[in-house]
Specification:
With about 140 residues, the protein is mainly alpha-helical. Helix content is about 55%, strand content about 10%. The chain has a two-stranded antiparallel sheet. Helix 1 packs across helix 3.
Length: about 140
């Protein structure tokens, strides 16, 4: 299972279920910023499929800023844009949305679907870590 919201550039063409309420381009930019943990406009453009103009990317960034989804810092003459929310928090929010929307709020159904995927091949070490995570969740009342 990938540790990023969008593992590679080719996936950027798909519609993101990870960002309800965002346009396709806004979702793509957010995915890039989470994957890179920050980027300039030029770096964002390099990662976008069929990239729009520099001005169009700046407009998307302005909108994301107005929605309080991103922040920026100055790095000399350029701005570095980064997600306002830590990627780990965003992952949890996105996964909760997917579980609620597509799996009837059932974590069991979501995990079962992940395990049924044909390309899932868990090592013994991964299975052991999953068992330990489930055990800790039970102990903490989840």
């Amino acid at each position: 299972m990938a540790a990023t919201l969008m593992p590679n550039k080719s996936d950027a063409t798909s519609s993101s279920t990870a960002a309800p309420g965002l346009s396709r381009r806004e979702s793509q930019v957010m995915d890039i910023l989470h994957r890179r943990t920050g980027a300039t406009v030029a770096e964002i453009m390099a990662d976008l499929p069929d990239p729009p103009t520099y001005s169009a990317v700046r407009s998307v960034l302005r909108i994301l800023g107005e929605k309080e989804l991103i922040k920026h810092r100055e790095d000399g003459p350029r701005y570095i844009y980064y997600p306002a929310k830590p990627t780990e928090t965003a992952r949890e929010d996105i996964l909760a949305h997917v579980v609620r929307t597509y799996f009837g709020d059932s974590p069991e159904q979501a995990v079962t679907a992940l395990l049924r995927m044909s390309d899932v091949d868990l090592s013994e070490a991964e299975i052991k870590r999953l068992r330990n995570t489930i055990r800790r969740a039970r102990q903490s009342g989840r």
